Amino acid sequence: MPSSSSIQECKPPPDKCRYLIFTDLDGTLLDHDTYEYRDALEALNYIRHQRIPLILCSSKTKTEIEHYRKELGLEDPFIAENGAAVFIPKGILDTRDMTFVEYRDYKVIELGTRYSRIKDLFAAIKAETGLKLSGFSEMSVDQVVELTGLGRDMAALAQQRDYSEPFLFEDAPWRVLEEEARLADLERAAEKRGLKITRGGRFYHLIGDNDKGKAVQILKKLYETEGQVLVSVGLGDSPNDFPMLKNVDIPVLVKKKDGQYAPWSTVKKVILAPDVGPKGWNRAVLNLLR
Ligand SMILES: [Mg+2]
Prior knowledge:
- By secondary structure, the chain is an alpha/beta fold.
- The protein is built from nine helices and 14 strands.
- It has a ten-stranded mixed beta sheet, with helices on both faces. A four-stranded antiparallel beta sheet has the order 8-9-11-10, covered by helices on one side.
- A hairpin with a 2-residue loop joins strand 6 (101-103) and strand 7.
- The longest helix has 17 residues, at 176-192.
């Protein structure tokens, strides 16, 4: 079993630390089924009071993330669609060395592949592998509602994608070995086309050569300023979070709704939050920061 550590304090004196918190949404800050974050309110309030940047880093689309960012009163950057795009509000962070496009009030650093191309390649991969996959772009809003438990409005926002195609195997479930063999076929077909497959809490995702870790690295670099020691914290629940967790100082894994942790053997020194989703998030964050 790989090593994990208990909740630890920031090593430099706390007044020299600048915390930067990256968090996944579904199944992590948001409850897997209800998409609520009320169990994390104590820690969220503490973070707001301490003015610690809280960077939402999700497989969700920009409009879905904006919904939560607004509700939470956040003005920090965010990362959409599994690291495909970093949205930085204009007026913060020095981005003069970065290549970005302007979108509304954001500077957007694009790391992903455009959705039109992802959809074309998804069709090509299906034809090549013969696997029966159903992608978000092929589903009605009602189907997305049924699969996700989202309300219709949020399901519609989830379908407004820019860089990634969430999908399921139509004839799942099968035996684990069978699943692994099919995934291996898919990954080969994706890789040939410069794409990757990653796995979130509910869906697989066909994405470009991006991941949450690359996006986290970019934001960490932009935040590194005037002699402060940057202490980055990352919180997640699923394999698509591992690249993020590998690129922060303090990686935290919350329990999935069945009470188990995603197999984290590739993430070093991970802190195992003592509870499921937002409850685990709350306790881990408060134990770390207070
Ligand atoms: Mg998740």
